Amino acid sequence: MEWRDGNGLTEREFLDQYRAGDYERPSVATDMVIFTVTDASAGREQRDAAKELRLLLIRRGGHPCLGKWALPGGFVQPDETTDQAAARELQEETGVTGVHLEQLRTFSDPGRDPRTWVISSSYMALVDSRRIQLEAGDDAEAAAWFKVSYQLRQEHKELLERGCIRTRTYELRLEAAGQALTAVIEQTLTAAPAARSLQYAVLSNDGLAFDHAKIVAYAIEQLRQETERTGIALLLMPEQFTLAELQQVYELILGQELPKAVFLDKMAALITATNLYTEPTEHTPSRRLYQRNWGEV
Questions:
Q1: Statement to judge: residues 156 and 259 lie in one domain
Q2: In a shared domain, residues 188 and 128
Q3: Nearest by Cα to 122 from 107, 136, 137, 108
Q4: Least CB-packed of 99, 153, 176, 254 within 10 Å?
Q5: Cα dist. 255→107, 221, 247 in Å?
Q6: What is the rounded distance in angstroms from the CA atom of residue 172 to the CA atom of residue 221?
Q7: Residues 116-163: tens digit of each pLDDT
């Protein structure tokens, strides 16, 4: 039996008369939040160096937002999914494949791009900085790794009859090559018995293109949440690492110091000890090396 709709049309008849141009259609883009961990000072020996969480940005070489720094990304092609577009952009910008890549959220605020109606599917990637070869794209003047700082500055709670509204204000600061990009992000959580919503607003922005400050803030919070409950931060580590290095990376992401006993308990099932040790230096003793427990990560 061939099904007919309320107008008496079969599916084929309906599709033959359907005109997609009758409806305004958005452009679809992907924006990549690419994190890595690097040594804070290239002049110190690697095992003794402080670590920094960094984010890849590109400086736009054309309009709109000429001269501002933006997340790498681009428009989705007609023959690819957003996942495929994100993987392609990641390879074009960093030269790496086969790394952690996950979809974050769709950003669709009207007017977020002055060119036209653009919906962005954002992605987060975690990469090993030693594998990366930066490549500025066609619309970019330069590409650089920016040190990430994301700090809570203010929190306010308003109790409702049945629920609450919690407002947090964060300062986002990105630094590289003597320059700093800053933004103030407001996060509003509205909780009620049968509903929960989380909204972001950019209160001020100095140097970042489009609404990318909002996307970066969301990605940092997502990375923090996943680090709390999973072993995702291990994907930023080399194949072998010391406990001190791993704890430092966790503290960088979470933005707080962790008691050593608590940290070791958290890592117990996620890592395994090797029979290898670091070479001792004038300032540091030999330390055991660990690796991921692939059965748990």
A1: no
A2: yes
A3: 107
A4: 153
A5: 26, 11, 12
A6: 12
A7: 999 999 999 998 877 776 655 555 568 899 999 999 999 999 998 889
Work out the burial of residue 160: count CB atoms within 10 Å of its CB; fewer than 13 is exposed, 13-18 middle, 19 or more buried. Answer: exposed
- CA-to-CA distance for 150 and 220, rounded, in angstroms? 8
Residue 56 tokens, joined: 């890849």
The burial class, CB within 10 Å (0-12 / 13-18 / 19+), for 33 is buried
What the block records as the tokens of 50 is 């402080």
| Total domains present in the chain | 2
Amino acid at position 88, single letter: R
Residues contacting residue 176 through CB under 8 Å, at least 6 positions apart: 57, 144, 145, 146, 147
67 in helix, strand or coil?
A: coil
**C-alpha dihedral over 97, 100, 103, 109, to 10 degrees?**
-80
Same domain (yes/no): 84, 220: yes
- pTM value is 0.90
Same domain, 207 and 69: yes
CATH of the domain at 172: 3.90.79.10
* Domain carrying residue 157: 27-229
Instruction: Give 2-30 pLDDT, tens digit per residue.
Output: 899 999 999 999 999 999 889 888 999 99
Residues 144, 252 within the same domain: no
Strands 271-277 and 195-206: unpaired
Contact 293, 269 (CB under 8 A): yes
Closest CA to 118 of 155, 157, 75: 75
Determine the length of the chain: 297
Residue type, 15: L
Report the b/e string of 192-230 with b at 16+ CB within 10 A.
Answer: eeeeeeeebebeebebbbbbbbbbbbbbbbbbeebbeee
Residue with token string 């390879």 = 91
> What phi, psi does 160 have (nearest 5°)?
-105, 175
Say whether 57 sits in a helix, a strand or coil. strand
